Amino acid sequence: MVRFLVRRLLNYVALCLAATFVAFALASLTFNPLARYAERQPPPPVETIAAKRLELNLDEPIPVRFAEWVGGIANGDFGTTITSAPVGDQLWQRVGVSLRLFLVGTVAGAVLGVLIGVASAIRQYRPSDYVATLFSFLVLSTPVFVIGTLLKVAWLPVNQAAGTQILYFGGETTAGFSGTGAEMFVDRLQHLVLPTVAIALGQIAYFSRYQRSAMLDVLASDFLRTAQAKGLTRRRALFTHGLRTALIPMATLFAFGFGLLITGGVFTERIFGWYGMGDWLLVGVQDQDTNIVATVTLFIAVLVLISSWLSDVLYAALDPRVRLG
Amino acid sequence: MSAIDRDSAGKRSDGPVLQVRDLEVSFPTESGRVMAVRGVSFDVAASEVLAVVGESGSGKSVSALAVMGLLPPQARLCGSIRFRGTELIGKSDTDLSRIRGHRIAMVFQDPLSALTPIFTVGDQIAEALLIHGTASRRQAGQRAVELLDLVGIANATQRARGFPHEFSGGMRQRVVIAMAIANDPDLIIADEPTTALDVTVQAQVLEVLRTAQQVTGAAIALITHDLGVVAGFADRVMVMYAGRAVETAPVDDLFDHPRMPYTLGLLGSIPRLDATGRHPLIPIEGQPPSMIGLGPGCPFAPRCPMVLDRCRTTEPDLLPVAGGEHGAVSVCVPLTLHTAACWRSGEIERTDAGPAEVFGLDDIPAVDLPPRTERRTVLRVDALARHYPVRIGTILRRTVGAVRAVDGVSFDIREGEVLGLVGESGCGKTTTLMEILELTPPMSGSIEVLGRDVAGLDRRERLAVRRDLQVVFQDPVASLDPRLPVGDVIGEPLAVHGMGREQIRERVRELLALVGLRADHANRYPAEFSGGQRQRIGIARALALEPKLLVLDEPVSALDVSIRAGVINLLDGLRVRLGIAYLFVAHDLAVVGHIADRVAVMYLGKIVEIGDVATVFGAPRHPYTQALLSAIPIPDPRVERRRERVLLHGDLPSPADPPSGCRFRTRCPLFGTLDETDRSSCIDAEPVRRQRGPGDHEVACHFARVKEVVQYRS
Amino acid sequence: MTMTPAAPPAVATAGPVEIPSETLSRGALVLRRFLRNKLGVTSGAVLVLLFVVAFLAPVFYPWDYRAQDDLALLTPPSPAHWFGTNQLGEDLFAGSIRGLQKSLVIGLLVGVISTAFAATVGAAAGYFGKAVDRALMWVVDLLLVLPSFLIIAILSPAFRGKSWLLLVVLLSGFSWMITARIVRGMTLTLREREYIKAARFMGLPAWKIITRHLIPNMASLLIIDATLSVGAAILAESALSFFGFGIQPPDVSVGTLIANGTDSALTFPWLFLFPAGLLTLTVLAVNFLGDGLRDALDPSSSRGRAR
């Protein structure tokens, strides 16, 4: 099994590099950073533009630029932005912001989604099943940026009624706030809730649909019938034999779900004013900055692939048929 | 040994263990309400074996699930099911679960999906004990290992820690049986426990069931469609049709004196291993009725050759047939009574009519061909081999070994001859078929169709050869494209080979008539036909191009028993009329014995014995052939009781790693009786096929000798 | 002693057999199942209505989406301006309708094109296997790693000022991967079906087998998938337009409207709620329709059972 996981890991690393290369190449081809630079007022002199050109390596062929950039990463250097600041400066801070947002949202969403899916399947055709289904459809049909804003619109009256800001709408922390460790933590929490809900809702909807379907399949399976024939009550058979087996397909979904989450994360960051990687991507495209875009792509690719790899690990852990293969 | 004699383990033998009265079960479906069981009453006495026989739609499985309380929630039940006096209908799931697995146990049909994939086998067996508080945790683990040993699984202690996917189908079924007997139940219900298994494995599992019964003294309700198994295993039989019992009798009585036309038909339609092939089987027309909106009258009426007007209006009750009377009797039925549900059973009793008299015999023309050696060779296969490399690794794939699916197979088929290729799963017969059909040069060896080596064919020539080589597949549902009307399906090969539209239409009409279907059926879709009819359509398609050789891959095993005879007769008749040769692959030797001229027995990719049917069946020389033949149940209780079974040890070795020398030696019953020097020749030297008997009879065994396992009457 | 049966014995090759006549044609069965799903039927009706409104309303509605009513800046919904107006006096209903047209057309085109492409790639990968399969699936995996949003965003400067059809092409280019995987899986299953083998052994060439036997038998899957892709495409387009990467000004999309309205969502809610609501309604209807189709066409799904 270890060999299996290592093999998958190597495959992922290759995919990672390839994906980042694609993004890098596309960005290099379509971006024209010098144009924007030259449009600044007052217009920079020709020599400065030429110097800038050299600085950004714009004359070299793309594969070479990419190779240099990748080489730089080995030393922790992610290149420079158009404004000549090292990409590395902002990178780790932004990574932290994004991770804080994504992780809580994903875990909460996945766990709740699985629970709701299982419950729906067991109570198929009853009102609670319909409600859950309707809710899932609604959430999956609404873009994340709408959900985010709707949350704000919905929560505003609550804040107004309470007279104070129970939950904040913008940023990770309140600017200029200082207090004890506990107070700072609470402040962060107050800022975290709404964006996390925005992300988690999508995850819940996604996981609950698929888990419901997987659970329904298990409910009709032969081995469940055998367990009952042995003398387990239906409920007991469901929980011991059925549940764990139904969770197995979810392991593979985890990776796909994470991919969806990242796109949603970009929007959420923008709407709630969190300055993370998603936000940086938008900045990079707007500024036509190849290095920023490539770095963010690498970050996303690594995250997606970590989640895929985790999927594999989970799958192997849950399903003994894979373990010995 | 009668039921009373077999009573052991201190079981109370007073009164029946199970009493079912007027059981009715119905389900809602897409197209209406299905009355799956329409008033069934029966008893199961302590320690007896009751066989419940029926085909699809008979309601036998549903009745079993009803007894266990495992029907889906939408099902509606009424009637009475009393287990040792306690009424089961109406009990809650919690109450029933105390009885299930404890006093009544069940074994299901498909062993591959019966066990939970994520728990070890030992844990699953132990669970049966822990749930009912029969043992503590440590004791349960111990007992699980003992039970595994009892059901014949070697290295029980080690294997108890294995997962279900590491076990073969036969072994999984044994595990399920071990789970069933763990708590010493009073009644074991076995729903088609061996249908999904190979015939030698079936023999092993039935042996395990017998052991289980001896050890626990339990009664067994065996549900099956295989009358051979019934003959060898049951004390009493109940025949079900369309949701009702239509005949019950002690087993000898049923086989000797069936009194209901359906039973008569069933008995007449099964090919027997010990009967010769040239008299035709007795088919039953039509197919089992749809259970939705069943009309009044006897459900068998549309198919019955003895039908009266009265049969169509009033359904007959299940009544005793003693002494020519068809009279009413009280509900409490003594176990030796023979009952039948037919208005004319009294008549049948008086005249002692058999299947041939009631149904009439088909007219199959006799085969009139010159001797084998004078006929043209239609197919010659020489040292054919097909290995599948086993590769690991994703980016750089290394070959670590090969699955030797077919490893040196040679045979030939002459014009108009039928060769049966038999063997169990994993023997390579299907792979052999596919290799031949591909018409591409094989991995090694050669294939010659009508004298032309396939190695030298280009695309156009291959297309031309395909005209002469056609195929009929096993699964009638999957062998026809559900999206095309039947006329298009049959006409497709003609279109591929360039026939004109009008000509195709004409030919399709001819072909439909040839297989017994109507011309206007050409516009209907496959879903509208029954299994037997679909198979006929498949046959029509195969005959469209007038091939010289027809390859058939288990053409009747997916069909209901009562329908098989019709298709077998059709194939028999067609082959005589059209002079086609058949390569007939099957695992059911009785069918092969009926229709084939010659038979080749395969094991792990090699042919171990080949020759004409009379010789191979009547005087088999290879131990595997002997075991195979002895494992096939014959639908005659007296013969079955006297038969000596040659049981094989263990499981089929992996085709990726076959044993050295003779591949069969790990399971060979003969091997165990040999001395050291003889054994070493089996281990070191692979036996070569050698002529042993009359005709072209060849056997691949160092110590081949005749052992009669079947009274083959020619 | 022979028995005289009441009716002459039947013989195998004579007397053709009757077919039970009560089975409906396949199309009728599917329709009946679909109609049973009220949500699906309602959604279908809603979509038809949306199409009609989107393309006919501009004929009847007085305001054009570009017109600026200087007398009505930031007015809430009224009989004159059904959805209200924005800061520039542009009528929101007209804008929403214009955006809806875009969304529906783009969604439909992307749904159909991406499904068709996915079917071809998936069927080829599944049927031919080996090297073809491995190569195609590696490409699929690669494209799945990169969120399509990212790539299209990167490419957006290149199609500033060009036709929105380019957006359709790009969106299609990134929506086919998951469907291709599913089609490949189905092809692998169907390939072993005996009627496919029969076709091969009859001498049918590979491309004919794929088009005549494989794809029609996946039609249900493809229809359902195309429908759901439409919904996904509409969402993707609005997301891109929201950030300015999709439909460019002066043209209008539901996404751009929502973007304009988001900042004022707390103060002038109609600027946000109407376009957002319209978008959600459309995608919701598409999803319910797809679900209803799935229940009708693929009865093996456990939800299709009658009560």
Word description of this protein:
The complex is a heterotrimer of chains A (325), B (714) and C (307). Helix content of chain A is 80%, strand content 0%. Chain A is built from 13 helices and no strands. In chain A, helix 7 packs across helix 8 (181-219), helix 10 packs antiparallel against helix 12 (290-318) and helix 11 packs antiparallel against helix 12 (290-318). The radius of gyration of chain A is 24 Å and the shape is globular. Chain B is α/β, with parallel strands linked by helices and 714 residues long. Chain B has four domains: 2-7 and 17-234, P-loop containing nucleotide triphosphate hydrolases (Rossmann fold, 3-Layer(aba) Sandwich), CATH 3.40.50; 241-359, 3-Layer(aba) Sandwich (Rossmann fold), CATH 3.40.50.300; 372-596, P-loop containing nucleotide triphosphate hydrolases (Rossmann fold, 3-Layer(aba) Sandwich); 609-714, no CATH class. Chain B has 25 helices and 24 strands. The radius of gyration of chain B is 27 Å and the shape is globular. Chain B starts with a helix and ends in a 15-residue tail after the last strand. Chain C has 307 residues and is mainly α. Helix content of chain C is 66%, strand content 0%. The longest helix of chain C is centred in the middle third of the chain and has 37 residues, at 92-128. In chain C, 48% of the residues are buried. Mean pLDDT of chain C is 80; it is low at 1-23 and 301-307. The chains are: A mainly alpha (325), B alpha/beta (714), C mainly alpha (307). Chains in contact: A-B, A-C, B-C. Chains B and C meet through helix 13, helix 14, helix 16, strand 18 and helix 17 of B and helix 1, helix 8 and helix 9 of C.
Blueprint (SSEs and pairs):
The complex is a heterotrimer of chains A (325), B (714) and C (307).
Chain A: H1 2-30, H2 33-38, H3 46-55, H4 62-74, H5 87-122, H6 127-141, H7 144-162, H8 181-219, H9 222-230, H10 234-272, H11 277-287, H12 290-318, H13 320-323
Helix pairs in contact in A: 1-12, 5-6, 5-8, 5-10, 6-8, 7-8, 7-10, 8-10, 9-10, 10-11, 10-12, 11-12
Chain B: H1 3-6, E1 18-29, E2 32-44, E3 49-53, H2 60-68, E4 76-83, E5 86-87, H3 93-99, E6 104-107, H4 121-131, H5 137-150, H6 156-159, H7 169-181, E7 187-191, H8 199-216, E8 219-224, H9 227-233, E9 236-241, E10 244-250, H10 251-256, H11 261-269, H12 309-313, E11 319-320, E12 339-340, H13 345-351, H14 355-359, E13 377-392, E14 398-414, E15 418-422, H15 429-438, E16 444-449, E17 452-453, H16 459-466, E18 469-472, H17 486-496, H18 501-514, H19 531-543, E19 549-553, H20 561-578, E20 581-586, H21 589-595, E21 598-603, E22 606-612, H22 613-618, H23 623-631, H24 637-642, H25 676-684, E23 690-693, E24 697-699
Parallel strand pairs in B: 3-8, 3-9, 6-7, 7-8, 15-20, 15-21, 18-19, 19-20
Antiparallel strand pairs in B: 1-2, 1-4, 4-5, 9-10, 10-12, 11-12, 13-14, 13-16, 16-17, 21-22, 22-24, 23-24
Helix pairs in contact in B: 4-5, 4-7, 5-7, 7-8, 17-18, 17-19, 18-19, 19-20
Chain C: H1 26-36, H2 38-60, H3 92-128, H4 130-145, H5 148-155, H6 165-175, H7 177-191, H8 194-202, H9 206-217, H10 219-242, H11 254-262, H12 270-297
